[in-house]
Specification:
With 113 residues, this protein is mainly beta. The protein is built from two helices and nine strands; from the N terminus they run αβββαββββββ. The relative contact order is 0.26.
């Protein structure tokens, strides 16, 4: 378990819902990954993310899926790709990532609280 944090620290993390509008293989990544373009609606728009989700997901099956992501981390260069958001997931029993998403469709850019 992680050390406790203040609620004010949690409030600094901007976690939003977006819809994957494009997904492409990322063969240049050191670990198997997929390049994602996620639309968070106005004013955030489309942000890019590199996600190590190849065990359970194929790029063509991700288009239109809503996901939950941190949108206020600084961009991170992953090889030739600039990742602008951290799509969230949890490990399955073998450690492969399973994406987090809302149970029912919600408006783009909805903030988790």
């Amino acid at each position: 378990m992680a050390d406790p944090i203040a609620y004010s620290d949690f409030e600094k993390i901007d976690i939003r819902v977006g819809t994957i509008v494009d997904a492409q293989p990322f063969p240049e990544a050191r670990k198997p990954a997929i390049k994602l373009w996620v639309d968070f609606g106005p004013p955030l728009g489309v942000k890019r993310s590199s996600a190590q989700i190849t065990v359970h997901y194929a790029p063509d099956r991700l288009i239109g899926r809503q996901v939950v992501a941190v949108v206020n981390f600084p961009p991170r260069q992953i090889g030739p790709f600039l990742s602008e958001a951290l799509v969230l997931g949890v490990p399955d029993e073998n450690g492969a990532v399973v994406l987090l998403r809302p149970d029912i469709p919600v408006p783009l850019g909805g903030r988790m609280f």
